Amino acid sequence: MAHLDAYNRLAALRKNRTGAAIVEMTIMAPVLISLALGVVEFGRALHHHHVINKAMRDAARFLARVPVDCPTGPGTGSVTNSADIDTAKNLALNGAPTGGTPKVSYWTDPASISVQVDCRDNALGVYRGPAGIPIITVTATVPYQDLGMLGALGLSARTFTLRHQQMHIGE
Hints:
By secondary structure, the chain is of the alpha+beta class. It has one domain. Helix content is 44%, strand content 22%. It is built from four helices and five strands; from the N terminus they run ααββαββαβ. The protein has helices at 2-15, 20-63, 82-94, 149-152; strands at 68-69, 75-79, 113-121, 132-143, 159-167. A five-stranded antiparallel beta sheet has the order 1-2-3-4-5, covered by helices on one side. Helix 2 packs antiparallel against helix 3.
């Protein structure tokens, strides 16, 4: 008789659905929260990548309008005035020629930005202009500071390395 009573209780418990939603939510909540935080982290990283990429473009466009030295023929040139390089770095970091708030809160080091001037050979006069056509390349290497989600997933820190090239337009 006790055996039948226990069987009836188990059958009634199996048919009872109260509390099933809370058990399902307890199982799914960590998965859903992790997924939501991952989407937020990915979106933030994508936004910062875009901002840094645009900053490189702004700096290269600025340097395309300042005086540069180019040897005759191919080789490495230089920006004539080093203050122009400082201004370009400040444009990239802060969006202003001097001072300002950083575009990305953790990217404040001007040393993370490099400027290179390459002179392309135009000795045959294929392009209108001098024998060496300057190409300005601005590169930034920025370690991405995540909100903690990458570390929680066991992923290593990421570093953005972005660059933009701009042909010298002239003063």
